[in-house]
Design goal:
It contains five helices and nine strands; from the N terminus they run E-H-E-E-E-H-E-E-E-E-E-H-H-H. With 217 residues, it is an alpha+beta fold. Helix 1 crosses helix 2, helix 3 crosses helix 5 and helix 4 crosses helix 5.
Length: 217
């Protein structure tokens, strides 16, 4: 079952290493004329949402949010390939192996620290497009034959006005309840063996549940 990671020193070191790589990627992409992006930990940068399943490795989830694109935003395959190549460039520069293209994210290899807590961890980087009415996540539907695959923008269910809802929750000090519901949902889908609800989806569901339960409109 999932639980929150409590080792604060380990969390700090893990965030520092992973966030540095993601920041390098943002700078690399923004230095060119292809697209403008920003990045954050899942939860729009919200902290204290890092979970671990028993003693298994930890996946640190980031969103790479497309702010502006100088090409067809619906060419999802081109977008993911471009980000993958740029990410690999950054990873290679930092002596990491290439990332892997999964359905929901670009995933790095697992790493661990040689001193202190040696739990393995990796980065899962989702590509997000916020078109102001909802959040869309880039999905690579795999068939086993690349030419038959599809790349699409999948709207996060009930992701409308997500930032507004987060602001309301934090302003009214309901964040601990978001943490409780978020963990419950991750464990619910784990028990069901439902692998179509990555952390980003669990986060949206938790935000909506608390927002409406606490009088948000």
């Amino acid at each position: 079952m999932y639980h929150y990671v409590e080792d604060k020193t380990f969390l700090k070191n893990m965030r520092n290493v992973c966030s540095d790589l993601i920041n390098q990627l943002v700078q690399e992409i923004n230095s060119k004329n292809t697209m403008k992006v920003k990045a954050c930990l899942v939860g729009s940068g919200a902290r204290n949402l890092e979970t671990q399943n028993e003693q298994e490795p930890i996946d640190l989830d980031y969103n790479l949010i497309i702010v502006k694109a100088n090409f067809d935003i619906n060419n999802c395959r081109e977008i993911k390939e471009y980000v993958r190549k740029e990410f690999n460039r950054v990873l290679k520069r930092n002596n990491w192996g290439d990332c892997q293209d999964s359905t929901f994210a670009l995933s790095t290899e697992y790493r661990h620290f040689t001193t202190g807590n040696n739990t393995c961890f990796k980065i899962d980087l989702g590509i997000i497009y916020d078109n102001k009415d909802a959040w869309y996540r880039l999905i690579h539907n795999k068939t086993g034959v690349v030419d038959n695959d599809s790349w699409i923008w999948n709207m996060g269910a009930n992701s409308q006005n997500l930032n507004k809802k987060v602001e309301y929750i934090k302003k009214n000090y309901y964040w601990e309840e978001v943490r409780r519901v978020y963990l419950e949902k991750k464990n619910l889908y784990l028990i069901r063996r439902d692998y179509n609800h990555p952390s980003f989806n669990c986060y949206i569901e938790a935000i909506n549940e608390i927002y409406y339960a606490k009088g948000g409109k």
